[in-house]
Design goal:
With about 400 residues, this protein is α/β, with parallel strands linked by helices. The protein folds into two domains: about 130 residues, Aspartate Aminotransferase, domain 1 (Alpha-Beta Complex); about 260 residues, Type I PLP-dependent aspartate aminotransferase-like (Major domain) (Aspartate Aminotransferase, domain 2, 3-Layer(aba) Sandwich). The chain is built from 14 helices and 15 strands. The strands form four sheets. The protein has a seven-stranded mixed beta sheet with strand order 2-8-7-6-5-3-4, sandwiched between helices. Strands 11-12-15-14 form a four-stranded antiparallel beta sheet, covered by helices on one side. Strands 1-13 form a two-stranded parallel ribbon. The protein is globular. The termini are far apart.
């Protein structure tokens, strides 16, 4: 097997040749959003230039062309996730809307006063707040699986936390702020043993390794297109057919309708039942192009390369006095969060920016994680297969410069 060549891959991503402040761009904010290959960018232009029309409505050439391209992506997503049917693929704006959709439909139907919703202590705000809102509305209780000092799920507590009152478990697959890869398959097994369905937030996992929803036995699985080389504003919710068919509509209007009268409205079949209004046609088509890009590379070697990047950066940061890694799980994706003694994370991030290095600072929409570790936030460097070892070395070099400049002399 040939070694992975990030140099060849980088040529596919126009933005990686940008020079912020006259410096070569080093983009280490991939957990927030990945960069896009030219083929994805071109797909958006191609649609608006040659196929722009509403789908499933017109008999004319443009509508038919756009409809065929759009519908083909649903089939491609079925294969991407190994879902049993394309009818189980629902287009949403992103992972956040997917959580809200399930909370507002399945949740409102099944959660009543005194019931429980179980999440983990490392969830993104988007997988906390919709369940909080549901629990407040219904008089239910939100329960939390704790994490240990390494940022690992306390799997030993999961079985006891799933009770006869638990109506759904909602769990992140890979933590965006810690990089922890959660044992979701085992959590699903424990939940299913008690008849409890599980929602998996796959916003980070789909960007870093192949996901098989049938192997996981996930009841719901969601991810966002912009994390996996696609455009913003488009995402995917997978749901088991029986569950989706039992759920009421999320919003009203447009293609979620079969027929309307003033006396009665009947709703469309899944997945269209959950897709009200004109969809993000260009976004779906561009997401399809992102899937084709994934098929063009060797994902196994890409994952191996990201693990190499993570290991290299981890060793380098551990060698810097005063740097503390936050999130040291045994199973991790390519995310490194850390704090520096006597150095403000925001100041360090701003300094690195002047060197052309893009990192993320703050709580990363996971404030409870920061509370768990007793810190206000971290510096987060997150890697993708198009990053290089040389970029990490440059990052570490400038991190030394930031510490020299920003740390008090008496520290």
């Amino acid at each position: 097997m040939n070694a992975f060549d990030p140099g060849r891959i980088r040529a596919d991503f126009p933005i990686l040749s940008e020079r912020p402040y006259g410096k070569p761009l080093i983009y280490f904010d991939n957990a927030a959003s990945s960069q896009k290959p030219k083929s994805v960018i071109d797909a958006i232009t191609e649609y608006y230039s040659h196929s722009n029309a509403n789908i499933h409505r017109g008999v004319h050439y443009l509508s038919q062309k756009a409809s065929e391209a759009y519908d083909a992506v649903r089939v491609a997503l079925k294969d991407f996730l190994n879902a049993p049917s394309e009818d189980e693929i629902v287009f949403v704006r992103g992972t956040t809307e997917a959580v809200n959709l399930v909370a507002a439909t399945f949740g409102r139907t099944h959660v009543q006063a005194g019931d429980e919703v179980l999440i983990s202590a490392m969830e993104h705000h988007s997988n906390i707040v919709p369940w909080q809102m549901l629990c407040e509305e219904k008089g239910a209780k939100l329960r939390v699986i704790p994490i240990d000092d390494h940022g690992q799920l306390r799997l030993d507590q999961v079985d006891n936390l799933i009770t006869e009152r638990t109506r759904i478990v909602s769990l992140v697959h890979v933590s965006n702020s810690l990089g922890t890869i959660n044992p979701v398959k085992e959590v699903i097994r424990l939940a299913h043993a008690k008849g409890v369905p599980v929602f998996v937030d796959g916003a980070q996992s789909t960007a870093h390794f192949q996901v098989d929803v049938q192997d996981l036995d996930a009841d719901f699985f969601a991810f966002s297109g912009h994390k996996i080389l696609g455009p913003t504003g488009i995402g995917v919710l997978y749901g088991k057919r029986a569950l989706l068919e039992s759920m009421p509509p999320y919003q009203g209007g447009g293609e979620m309708i079969r027929s309307v009268s003033f006396e009665r409205t009947t709703y469309n079949d899944i997945p269209l039942r959950f897709e009200a209004g004109t969809p993000n046609i260009a976004g779906v088509i561009a997401l399809g192009e992102a899937l084709r890009y994934w098929e063009s590379i060797d994902r196994d070697t890409a994952v191996q390369w990201e693990n190499t990047l993570l290991a290299h950066a981890t060793v380098a940061l551990q060698g810097i006095s005063g740097v503390q890694l936050i999130g040291t799980a045994a199973e991790k994706a390519s995310v490194l969060s850390f704090v520096i003694d006597e150095v403000n994370a925001l100041d360090a991030g701003m300094y690195l920016d002047t060197k052309g290095i893009a990192v993320r600072t703050g709580h990363h929409c996971t404030e409870p994680v920061m509370h768990r570790f007793g810190i206000p936030g971290t510096i987060r460097a997150s890697f993708m297969f198009y990053n290089t070892l040389e970029e990490i070395d440059e990052f570490v070099n400038h991190l030394h410069g930031a510490i020299r400049l920003l740390r008090p002399l008496n520290a």
